[in-house]
UniProtKB/TrEMBL annotation:
<keyword id="KW-1133">Transmembrane helix</keyword>
<dbReference type="GO" id="GO:0005635">
    <property type="term" value="C:nuclear envelope"/>
</dbReference>
<feature type="domain" description="Phosphatidic acid phosphatase type 2/haloperoxidase">
    <location>
        <begin position="11"/>
        <end position="122"/>
    </location>
</feature>
<dbReference type="InterPro" id="IPR000326">
    <property type="entry name" value="PAP2/HPO"/>
</dbReference>
<dbReference type="Pfam" id="PF01569">
    <property type="entry name" value="PAP2"/>
</dbReference>
<keyword id="KW-0472">Membrane</keyword>
<feature type="transmembrane region" description="Helical">
    <location>
        <begin position="12"/>
        <end position="29"/>
    </location>
</feature>
<dbReference type="InterPro" id="IPR036938">
    <property type="entry name" value="PAP2/HPO_sf"/>
</dbReference>
<protein>
    <submittedName>
        <fullName>PLPP7 phosphatase</fullName>
    </submittedName>
</protein>
<feature type="transmembrane region" description="Helical">
    <location>
        <begin position="70"/>
        <end position="95"/>
    </location>
</feature>
<keyword id="KW-0812">Transmembrane</keyword>
<dbReference type="GO" id="GO:0042392">
    <property type="term" value="F:sphingosine-1-phosphate phosphatase activity"/>
</dbReference>
Amino acid sequence: LNSASVSHRSLSVSIFVALLLDIMIVAGLQKLAKRKGPYDINPGLLDYLTMDTYAFPAGHASRVAMLSKFFLNHLVLAIPLRILLVLWALCVGFSRVMIGRHHITDVLSGFVFGYLQFRLVELIWMSSNTCQMLISIW
């Protein structure tokens, strides 16, 4: 395997771990806070399956912030793509407020939690050998 492919595998496994971590942390915080969104919207079946029944913190915002930070830090991207990545994150957060699922503070806290989760996964970054072992198990 060449170094680029090993690096991408390491990034993929780390992003997967980060997404699992995000789901657990956001679901736990939402269950603790039990803050409803700005409008009384009844959660649908998909909301229950994804454990997205409360508003604080905004899970979409935390995930998009975390993924954007991973891509900005670990992929070589041209400036226009870097700008589009940041705009994508902002649009996801803004859309959650616009559809009435979250208060602006829910989205801002989601961005903060996403960044903190990114930093945590960076601290426990797995070596390419560990990632290769995990991939071979699956």
